[in-house]
Amino acid sequence: MRLRxxxxxxxxxxxxxxxxxxxxxxxxxxxxxxxWDFYGSSELRPGERKEEKPSQDEAPVVRAAAAADADRPAxxxxxxxxxxxxxxxxxxxxxxxxxxxxxxxxxxxxxxxYEVEIWSKAAIGDYFWTDIFRGSxxxxxxxxxxxxxxxxxxxxxxxxxxxxxxxxxxPPTTRHVVMILNAHNPEKMVTAKALLDExxxxxxxxxxxxxxxxxxxxxNQWLEPYLPFVKFVFMVYHDASMIDNDKIFEWPLGIxxxxxxxxxxxxxQLRLDQPREYTCNMxxxxxxxxxxxxxxxxxxxxxxxxxxxxxxxxxxxxxxxxYLTAELGPGHERLSQEHLTDKNLLANYPAPxxxxxxxxxxxxxxxxxxxxxxxxxxxxxTSQFTLCPxxxxxxxxxxxxxxxxxxxxxxxDVPTPECGPEFNQLxxxxxxxxxxxxxxxxxxxxxxxxxxxxxxxxxxxxQRDVVEWYATFKTAMRDKFMSVLLNxxxxxxx
Length: 494
Description:
It comes from Capsaspora owczarzaki (strain ATCC 30864). By secondary structure, the chain is an alpha/beta fold. It has 13 helices and 14 strands. The protein starts with a helix and ends in a 6-residue tail after the last helix.
């Protein structure tokens, strides 16, 4: 009996010691992954604020329309399975690899074979982490620093960003780093080079990869001296002189997170089973003697610019009800779901009045006012098509923001002379079979819209295709990045 009691006490003592040791190790991991900072101190100061940044699904959004009233007419085209089928497709597209764990920061503690630091000094880092990798972050030190982590393909990714990020203060245990940089203009290039020089001085770092916001005019030669130092580069904008799909790859521009663009909350917000209020929208800085100016003149000539007399979507729905009631005859004042989905009845219903919401400004601004941001968001959310004319480059934020809100991009497909004579600036989108509409002459925009609007059901289907494609595209880019990382980092053992 005494021996059993002693054995039980010994077992209990061992359990306590092991638990304490594991708790200590977890605490050390917490310190290394969360609490070492880039300001020079070894730990967070007492009372520093830590807040959870809302996830993409939880982030507040501005709705484009009020909730439907009980007596509001139903949509013209109703398919109860549309949103459910699309939701299933999006879930399949968003499915994480089997080796991926998505969990709150405090729970991402399972073993990972590799550990990689991702240091972001550019706004595209937010799109990289939040949209491509669907990660969340914590704000630390009054928002000057943010941190998040997750495990993908047996790699623990630790994401860090913010004005307080100082690579030189990284602990000596850091081995593998991906740096996200802004080299969009000469001033940003100077900062990017300084950060790379600082990173090159960290002798304990074995592998370095880059994600770079490149020059819209393909002025990226500043990067060449660093290519022997880095293992791979993902570059925004298709610089044909550098992108070889061997060491340098193209990366999507994404949405303008620096402008606080509102991501969608859910599919219901997109109203993919009904026509939208406007045929299209064109909202941009209107540079003189550019195709943007040409596009606006073409819209005005075709009487496509929306006015105060343009009927609202509710008026369009009411008109459809009147049409169907007349077609069905007396006794069908209350239309059934079957009638509303009868394509034969709806085949002859005239299309909504073609109108485009056009709002342009003369000078580019880094930030929009709250009202401008709201107006732009509502324009995308209430337009079937979003017109995407060329700026300095044909690749623009508007393309991805339209996809986010279920508006079909109509993209100008012309060369950027500074990047080469070929039509290669949309290579990434075309390689992934983006279901967009490509145009080379905006003078034909009225005919393009007429052709698309001839089949109303096809327009709704293309909108759903755009939303599903965008989810699949982001997953494909995540998988491509992880594949390149795993195959490029030598001695990937720590």
